[in-house]
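Table S2 (text version). Query chain:
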Amino acid sequence: MIHEIHIENIAVIESLDIQFSSGFTVLTGETGVGKSLLIQALGLIAGARVNLDSLRAGSKQACVEARLSLSSKKSCSALMEQGYGDGEDWVIRRLIKANGKHRIYINGHMANATTLREYIAPELDVHGQDSQQRLLSPELQRILLDKYGEHEILTEKVATAFKSWQKTVEQIKNLEAASNNREQELDYLRYQLDEIERVEPKPNELQELDEHLKKIQGQAEVITAIHTAATYLNDGEYSAIERLFSVIQALRQAAPYNQTLQEFADSLDAYSLEIQTVYRRLSQIYTDTELQDIEALQERKQHLERLINKHGGDLNTLFKAQKDIYDRIMVLENIDQELMVLRQQAQRDETDFFQVAQQLSQHRQEAAERLAKKVTSDLKLLEMPHAIFSMTGWGIGEPSQFGIDQVAFTFSANPEEVAKPLKRIASGGELSRILLAIQTAIGAAYGNSTVVFDEVDAGIGGQTAMTVGARMQALGQLNQVLAVTHVPQVAAHAHQQIHIEKQIQAGRSLTVSRILEPEERVEELAGMLGFRDTATAIEHARTLLTEARQ
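Corresponding structure-token output:
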């Protein structure tokens, strides 16, 4: 049930707030004040597509916000599980920007139109001025029948069974296509697998190689330094040790003539011994250090990186590719056996699908008989005494996720006429009454939903209009019914009447609404009759209201 709605910057509406009650509510007012825009706004709350042309001229953003409650425990639970609220009232808000971007919020949380269509639309049945033509759609006819018959569980089973069957069929097609090129694909897959197996990649190997290469590069620098130092210390007649020995010899030869020279020679001799010790230790380190082949390690790393780049990702991706290639080889090598298994599975899936589809078809036929009887009876009350409404198409449709039926509404306005599909014979006025009769039947079966009509009573008057009003009033006993109407006989049957009008305030044209009090309703109905200020029209309006309450 919709409790209230706020509309801002939608076409001629700058800002409009309306509160709704339960039961049957009519929206009345002159043409062009924005009554049908309210229907469009409710459609947006139900997840309809945004039309940027509906933005008010000069505005950068439009807003539609509604507070409502849901009768479906399943929908409430699903929305709560997704973090949208606590299951009490639900505030739906849609922001529409002139640049084409828009936002959807449920209780302040970001959402999308799919969520609205899945959980809000089933309880907000909006029928705009195009609904008569939509009624001609086989899809909508099937949806209405399934809604009336409460086939939700069965339709889900049929859809699941069909998808399972088609998935198996698709696997068979893929394998049959692969079978035609099996040898060529096997050769390529075996080449890829052999390429990976020859390299024999190991977990974390790239990281270990990088660490090892860094270590080896450090060792190489150490060996280079040792070799350079050892060469300078003791390599050839110009090495540090040889030159120091020559210095010591020269000092000792001259020492007999200067005692100080002997002291220098002795000191240098001690340094010579230390230098020779350093040289021997450096030589030992050089001998003990093993330098691995850095080129081999770099080549190993390049092989791994080439394979990784070829199969994408990292080493884990490479291992997955190796497994997938192996599994694919196994499938191709055993493709005949696999095809046999899948064909058997497809037969089982097909049997399961037709079994549940036939159950759905049987339930549809039973529901169709009840709905046809109810609609035909209501059409007689709607001044179509000879009308016959029926449904056909059981078991003749192409198998699909919707079953095996090709549901078609058929209609005959006169007893001598053969019932034919709606789209071939029904007039606009007949379609309006058929739609109302169907909605009345569904509303009586379901209850606690909101049904919205936009001039469903167009083109009727007199006693027929009184009957239509009575049927909508009856529908409002179990559901919330909102209707835009220009027909006074229909408006008189409403539990609540809201008047929509334009006012000029501060030089601006504004659309406003108000709930009419009893006397205001009399005046409004008189105006709808065409004679607002005459005593006769006032009396006629009072009579309409009195008769509508009986």
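Notes on Table S2: Residues 60 and 98 are 5 Å apart (CA to CA). The first helix runs from residue 35 to 45.
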